[in-house]
Amino acid sequence: MNANTELTAFWAPFLLLHLGWPDTITAYALEDNELWLRHFLGLAVQTGMAIYVFILAWTGSHLSILYLYMFFAGLIKYGERTWVLRKASIETIRESVADEGINFSEFSQSTYGDRDEYYGLFVAYRLVRVYFRPRILNVKVPSLSGNILGLASTSSEKLFKFMELVHGSTCDNLYTKSPLLYTRCGLSLRVITFFLTSSVLVLFPAVVIHDKHKFSNTDVTITYILLLGAIILELYSAVLILSSDRFLVWLIEHKKFSTMKALECLVGRASTQKRWSNNMSQFSLLSFIMKEKPLPCPNILKHLRLDKKLEKQGYAVDMEIPKNLKTLIGLYLRKKKQHSQIGPTNSIPVDPVGLNFTEELEKSILAWHVATDIRHELDGEAIKQHGYYNY
Asked: Where are the transmembrane segments (predicted)?
């Protein structure tokens, strides 16, 4: 077989390797997790094609041995993604969460002093584990709610920071490789793939030098680019693991506070990391009815089937959440905590507001939307002057 053809066949395992990337996005929607069998079929087909290419290109040379190294690295990487998709399906998550009780007392807020962002991170991670349980058997709701609302007892900003941590942990479980990376198996696989890829990068120059006259310079350059790209992605993945919230939770659970301080010097404090845009989309039904916003070139957009989507986006506005709104929500929750108690049987009192709506859910949502708009207009001056509603 021609040497350049063999080198070109050597690129096939890189397809498997890069199909397993990135670690930060394994699913673009929850449906991807539920359809993990489809991705498993893709893994089987791509692996079969790589094996077929390997059989055709096998010559017993050093390059063929390196092909095996990259094939196993790519198979592990792509297999990781498929396994995580299955692991992130809702039923699998619920079945995999341990039944043992969640003990918050061992990791009390006093353990960290003024570093309550780490305490909040720990509680957020534990709360996500409770959320994915179909039944909460060994967790007392009063204890859990007390830890959550205790974080917001002094500042509404802390409450919203805590919710950022909760949503971040939830997204990690559903849309990234987090369920696998922070296990012994996942870390072992990551070490193996890094070792295989780096070994190929070290040994490939020796193969090129030995048969320098056989290979095209262009093909050799492309191969080096593929190898360097794979190594850079592996190093980037290691940095993400060390700077992630989940790794900090592991350090908290094992009380590795000296390691946490060292990480602060490298990646900064957990409380300073920005986890979302602080913006939310707003839609006013009354504005939609009273103020029409025609689309440019409506016939063309309709033909391209983009008119409905652009029309929805045209009436939605991204607004930054003001601090006074966060303060208002925090005050409201603290008042609710003072005037209500959560029973020992995991029962949460229901607010009587809204129980008068006996019509369908759609009508209730519509009525509340109109009522909110009217209230906003009535309290508009108070909002501008004092920054709160007269509720």
From this structure: 51-76, 187-209, 221-242
